[in-house]
Specification:
By secondary structure, this protein is an alpha+beta fold. The protein contains 6 helices and 14 strands.
């Protein structure tokens, strides 16, 4: 199929081809027809929109076959923003994944996913009784954020990101099938960004509160879990958190979108810029659990 975009003709390609043992299991499952046909149609339509917006990188198709979650998350997130009416573009080469323009404001977004890894997070079969350690999840999140932060610093130095531009990181934990269990007391992302620990019950006062946890020690390495409590990460304006899974084709971004602002950001994102999902704005006191929570009904 050939479509026109900005007076240019774009020949749309197919997302799925043949199966291959070296490809990601999710890709092979869809190609082999083991999932409903609507799943294949859903992703093909997303891919068509991705192409129409000229967001496809040169090696995107090869990436989908072997790095399913990272590529699909970036495509899904980008297309959902486009469908919500945001003015998006996808600069090629050495630049952040997505560029938004809202009036005179430029917003850059880097997309990343938390993969299972070889030994970072131990998963269990559903129904098995086990104790969940949220530290493993938090370590994976902070590692991914730091990796993207280093890229952002490079883009700042090369002046791709302007001095007044907003920078966000969109992080997805969908591949960790049990990650939502670790969020029963407090959002995982807040534990990684604001040093919030687990819940504790004070018997004498008969009250429950969250502790503070500024770092996690793993073997001989100390990992900071208070990235947004100092000015060190001031070039990140906020983090978008999602646990959307690639099998949830009926779920929209607005139903699983949590935006947490950086209290010490150099360039602060205006409250209500996106008006979808949930928005967390930390109070100036920066106390544990000190957030204004705004829920948007869209």
């Amino acid at each position: 199929m050939i479509v026109e975009k900005n007076d240019k003709e774009i020949r749309l390609k197919k997302l799925f081809e043949a199966t291959n043992p070296s490809y990601h299991p999710a890709y092979n499952t869809i190609v082999s027809g083991k999932l409903a046909k609507k799943s294949k149609d859903f992703y093909q339509k997303l891919y068509a929109l991705y192409q129409k917006n000229e967001c496809e990188e040169k090696n995107f198709l090869d990436g989908v076959k072997k790095q399913w979650y990272p590529r699909i998350w970036e495509m899904y997130f980008t297309c959902q923003l486009a469908e919500l009416g945001f003015d998006i573009s996808c600069p090629k080469g050495n630049a952040p994944d997505i560029k938004l323009k809202i009036g005179d404001q430029v917003i850059w977004i880097e997309c990343t996913v938390i993969s299972k890894g070889k030994d970072a997070v131990i998963e269990h079969e559903d129904g098995e009784v086990h104790e969940l350690n949220d530290e493993d999840y938090i370590l994976r999140i902070t590692s991914a954020l730091n990796s993207k932060y280093n890229q952002i610093q490079t883009h700042k130095k090369s002046r791709i990101i302007g001095k007044n531009d907003i920078v966000l990181i969109a992080i997805n934990t969908g591949e960790l099938q049990l990650a939502e269990i670790a969020q029963t007391d407090y959002p995982l992302i807040h534990k990684a960004l604001y040093g919030i620990g687990n819940m504790e019950w004070n018997v004498s006062k008969d009250e429950v509160k969250n502790t503070q946890r500024q770092k996690i020690t793993k073997k001989t390495t100390e990992i900071k879990t208070n990235l947004f409590t100092t000015k060190e990460y001031k070039n990140i304006s906020g983090v978008i958190f999602s646990d959307w899974k690639t099998i949830q084709i009926e779920k929209k971004l607005k139903d699983d979108f949590e935006l947490t602002h950086n209290l010490f950001a150099k360039n602060k994102l205006t409250k209500g810029t996106f008006k979808i999902g949930i928005e967390y704005l930390p109070y100036e006191s920066n106390g544990v659990g000190g957030f204004e929570k705004v829920e948007y009904n869209t």
